[in-house]
Amino acid sequence: MLRITDLKLPLDHAEEALPKAIRARLKLSAKEPLSFTVAKRSYDARKRGAILLIYALDIDTPRQAELLQEFADDKNIGPTPDTSYRFVAHAPANLPRRPIVIGTGPCGLFAGLILAQMGFRPIILDRGKAVRERTKDTWDLWRKRNLHPESNVQFGEGGAGTFSDGKLWSQIRDPQHHGRKVLTEFVKAGAPEEILYVSKPHIGTFRLVTMVENMRATIESLGGEIRFSSRVDDLLIDTDAKGKRHVRGVTLHGGEQILADHVVLAIGHSARDTFEMLHARDVYLEAKPFSIGFRVEHPQSIVDRARFGAQAGHPILGAADYKLVHHATGNHAGKGRSVYSFCMCPGGTVVAAMSEPGRVVTNGMSQYSRNERNANAAIVVGIDPVDFAPFDTASDKSTPSPLAGIALQRALESHAYTLGGENYNAPGQLVGDFIAARASREFGEVEPSFKPGVTLGSLDSALPAYAIEAIREALPAFDRQIKGFALHDAVLTGVETRTSSPVRIKRDDSFQSLNTAGLYPAGEGAGYAGGILSAAVDGIKVAEAVALSIATRH
Fold it and tell me: What's the CATH fold of domain 100-286+503-553?
């Protein structure tokens, strides 16, 4: 087959316009046979009055070889790339120790799935519960203020991505088309087929729940074993005669030991006690940059009008999103800081994402329909390990602790709990009042979606001064890009601290820990991914590394 890219048609083009445009592009007569499939469909909304659809199409025609030669100099016509997935190894008949995967987020699920498909019968451990039990526990916090520390938005089957917008796109380099394998497996598990071709695919929480269950069933049918409420409290590590460290298994909460020579760490960005255990066991860690800020909520209609104009509400376009960046230049503590939107959730809700008692954290979530009244996004400021110094709890400050970013997160989340009233309400402020540096007393036209609730006041103490001043400068600047962004009644809710892992568990070219052989740090928690798709892709890469390591030994 051959592929045409960058074929543009009006948003409301007729059905017959697409094959007609293909024939015109390839100079095919009306009598020549033609069949095609849509490989990708995106849109260009830079001109709101003339929104275009942009297609990439795979064409089946008897004249393929001739056409490829005729259009050899055309960068938008070429052979269809081979995106099929091929297993790198298969399990030996005699497998004395099965590999262990810790975590059932996107990274852990795909690491486990690929290992299972190659016959390695992985043992997959998760500290949380199965997804439906976990959902009940999560709603218990949102509705009744009861936090379950081992079963919540962060911990349990599906990982943090289960309670999100279910975004399935990424900017990672993917020359081996692992992302296609991820999307294909999601479709097998129940995702809509459109995720294979729309430019910004998403699923939403309710669909993710069923998909995760179906993936679990597939892994188990292939001989894999998934154990919930199985928190890993320690690693079994030995040192050989040459001083090289090797992982030999794990110890679960309660004392049970499981032996393994290959352990995948897909623990997510919020497993703070696990990071502490790894640090205590001298696994190589380092602090890494992340971001902190607030969630902002606007009426979705404001974003739709700003992005799509008169075409707002068009079924192909759906609810509009945005991506904003501002570099603070004012004469204040935030000068030089970058402020940007993160994890934008069209037609969604702001959710309580805490995993530790006495702390408040926000995140965003949407359903597949994206039809809630409000749009929300994190508005965050980038921070570096140098900013962690005031929160560094290392006894020897001459050697900064790799866990200092966790200490910063905990301090901000604890203060947010206090500002919210110490009942798991989140602190909030109207955007107009925040810009004017005055406390808010009552809500306006925007009703916040965060549950259990929002306590209005001032957010000035919720983040360090440099972050407050940078965000205060950025909001009016964002209004110049999306008219209405600085709407007085828009609501800021705090705090957003779990944008990415504050720690990187460094690994070598074989995907193993720098100083502990057989230990495979993976995904977002290890600092190698950000979001569902990139985490899943990293899980595939790590599973392949594990499979090759085992296969070469047998």
Answer: FAD/NAD(P)-binding domain (3.50.50)
